[in-house]
Amino acid sequence: MANILDGNRIRDEIKNECRPRVERLKARGRTPGLAVVLVGHDPASEIYVRSKVKTSEELGISGETLKPPESVTTDELLEIIDGLNRKSEVDGILVQMPLPPQVDAKKVLLAVSPEKDVDGFHPCNVGNLATGRPGPRPCTPAGIIELLKRYNIPICGRRAVVVGRSDIVGKPLSMMLLHENATVTVCHSKTTDLAAVCREADILVAAIGRAAMITADYIKPGATVIDVGMNRLESRAAVERIFPGTRPGSAPKLEAFDRKGTLLVGDVHPLDVAENARAYTPVPGGVGPLTIAMLMVNTIDSAERRIGVC
Ligand code: NAP
Fold it and tell me: What letter would DSSP give residue 209?
């Protein structure tokens, strides 16, 4: 049986390491502060922001959530960001995506001071990552590297294949794996014979956004498989396609769907990966929990950097 890489356990480890760092900062009269900007009422964004705020409160990081209306303009948002950039008690600024269509999201992200950019999306921090300089790293890829290291999965010299080239996951993760001395291949929707490329991977990462697309024929037996995808299935037919009633392991998933009316699945086929990989991240409970933990780390790092203790 493949090993399950437990994201909840690693998240708790990371959070426990954050607590004394927050205490030390507080003892110096410098409570770390995170400001979240949430525009409008997108239900998924509201859930994400709630759990980010809850985690920061739990760790003693002071939080502030600004909620401009859905009709906000680019200039109004720039003014909000400018205010947060100037506020000395704010160490991290997070603008929850997506922003409404009338807002120039790139302009807004560019306005966040690079030293408070706890998402690591500012071009200055993208450059810091590319050139191996210190600076905040995007949270989801940083969490994946933490997970691999804490489970002692060798990266140096291994073949890593990352499917997906987004600015928030695929590209930064590829760069981080390269810095860890993996031999990295980045794939996308125009990659030919994707399955054959994936089968070369000792470490296979799926960051695609397509439910259970990575099936057994994409997985080299014994590979480590990291599933970043979060896809919500809303019909029983879709659930049955991935979890046919006749296949062992399907029954609990079908029951879960029948109870809730939806089911969260990753980009990797959950039954195939369990049969073929040496180790893999489940969905839920794999990569997801790490993203918020790394946001906390980035906020504390920023507070420490700003008072010159690291
Ligand atoms: P994205 O910006 O939509 O990028 C998806 C990538 O997948 C693109 O590079 C795209 O290629 C590639 N792709 C799409 N269809 C493909 C196919 N058939 N074959 C090969 N490549 C294909 O997505 P994202 O923001 O990186 O997110 C990816 C997934 O991760 C989503 O399910 C998202 O919800 C999840 N996610 C989870 C977390 C977490 O904390 N767990 C954080 C972020 C994202 P092209 O570039 O050619 O279009």
Answer: -
